[in-house]
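Weekly modeling sync, notes
Attendees: S.R. (lead), two postdocs, one rotation student

Agenda item 3: backlog of single-chain predictions. S.R. asked that every request posted to the team notebook include the full sequence so nobody has to chase files. The rotation student volunteered to paste the first one in as an example of the format we agreed on. Action items at the bottom.

Example entry:
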Amino acid sequence: MSDIERTEFQLPSELLAGGRAPDSAVDPGVQPDETDIDQTLRPKSLDDFIGQPKVRQQLDLVLAGARRRSVTPDHILLSGPPGLGKTTMAMIIAQELGSSLRMTSGPALERAGDLAAMLSNLMEGDVLFIDEIHRIARPAEEMLYMAMEDFRIDVIVGKGPGATSIPLEIPPFTLVGATTRAGMLTGPLRDRFGFTAQMEFYDTDDLTRVVNRTASILGVEIRQDAAVEIASRSRGTPRIANRLLRRVRDYADVHAEGRVSLEEAQGALEVFDVDELGLDRLDRAVLSALVKGHGGGPVGVSTLAIAVGEEPGTVEEVCEPYLVRAGLVSRSARGRVATAAAWRHLGLEPPETAAGLH
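Predicted structure, as returned to the notebook:
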């Protein structure tokens, strides 16, 4: 994502004439649309951020030390699975520093010129956030090395023997990189970050706090046992917890006048195919294909993907990480193997040879 575009608009004629807009336009009680809610749900400070206590403590020290010395903080790398709050943390860093935040993503930086355009527009102390930084193109990455270390870049003008390199000084800035695959980062890029934070999956207690906070912002009346139920099915991920709460809210609005009890939460999650372990339809299809279709394995990812009608990348990147973390699937040199817990989750008796039975 490049710099935010500015859009001009005209006020309605009745406002220009001094008249009132319709009540829905000025009533503070009117709920914002879903895109507004996405921004509202994001915490604005480290104190408001739920979970990740170690990362918050370390980051607070890094930022506080930089503020005391009146210098730009070291570059920061945020690593971890999707949905744990890396983008939100980058916004908080800029907020804590009182700086502007420029946002882009690795796939958007295909050429060195794309990065040079962003770097040349930075002001001193700005925070540049690059999401999925492991996917940045190699020419742009090599330009980033010099920018991170020396706060300058070399812009090549012309082609062939007549090409000229023009050094361009850029003001000190803080790069915040986010990656879901730290292992794909090149060594030279990883080494240029002064602080690396590893974001961990959330436990049920922290996710329950996330659900309660989101319910308060959305104006949802929810009981504590219902919040715990939603949190326990959220796969350790705040983004999923917020998404499930919205769907439970829809169900409660239709069936219970907006009040979310344990029964309403369970009923909604059943309707939306989320079981007690947080598995959705695709997860259960993969598990069923592994257990019922291939006797528990070992089976290759490509074979499982064909069985459920999905791409191998989808099975490997979307389903498999949680199935392995939940102890339902194990990986071996010969393929994926269903554990005894997977058999029992499907209501079947595991064979004597099932992984994890003894």
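Discussion: group reviewed the output briefly. The longest helix spans residues 238-255.
Action items: rotation student to repeat for the remaining queue; S.R. to check formatting next week.
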